[in-house]
User: What shape does this take?
Amino acid sequence: MAGPAQAGVELIRDGRRHDGRLPEDLRPVRMQVGILHNADGSALVEFGRTRVLAAVYGPREPHQRFYVLPDRAALRVRYHMAPFSTDERKSPAPSRREIELSKVVREALEPVVLAEEFPRTVIDVFLEVLQADGGTRTAAVTAASLALADAGIPMRALVGGVAVGKIQGVLVVDVDELEDMYGEADMPVAAAPDIGEITLLQLNGVLTGEEFRTALAMALRAINRVVEMEKEAIRKSYLEVGGGQE
Ligand code: ADP
Assistant: This one.
């Protein structure tokens, strides 16, 4: 595969990234809660051009009894990329990657959802990637956390996510697709800062031990900011409902 130099892409220049960001800058982040009428909870989250919609249903009785757990609600997550979400039209059929990411996102949420309060029910989380430009799994975790809160599902804390990358030897926060494609490492992290738990940690590529520790600290600092934005988005949705703007 051609490297960034061959492709004419200089990803870091004078300490700035290809889109002008400093290493610890997030892309412009937007969060909206409660945007779908037909779901119990919903949220739209954008990190730059990456745009993910989350819809939550439940807790409810499942159509298939098969899914029922005697002592808690079963959390089901479907991560899906819309056919129009990428440059090349993606097949609408679920890919292996989507099946894997559905599991990764579910496992990033399970530690915070108080599923034991709703035995014998299911909570469904549908994640639709509307536009993909890197970091869709961490945006999906963030959107799901907001949609679960919007559905009134009790949680121990909110979860947020961001990926840290290593680009031309520099650690950077919130990698986009270009940085993900040409970077040396990519480390998606999700965490619940209010209870001090990391719920997702993956690493593609190679980091030294010291780089890993720095990257994790950078991710957690960024996630603090993401979760503060989540709280603000939830507050705003309450005010809008209270103010009768819907
Ligand atoms: P993440 O989206 O969590 O970073 P990946 O590292 O697997 O997950 O993907 C990085 C980026 O590559 C995605 O955000 C998306 O922009 C692009 N991508 C992933 N899968 C596809 C696909 N099937 N077709 C086109 N682009 C894709």
In short: The longest strand covers residues 50-60. The CA atoms of residues 210 and 216 lie 10 Å apart. The mean pLDDT is 93. The first helix runs from residue 96 to 109.
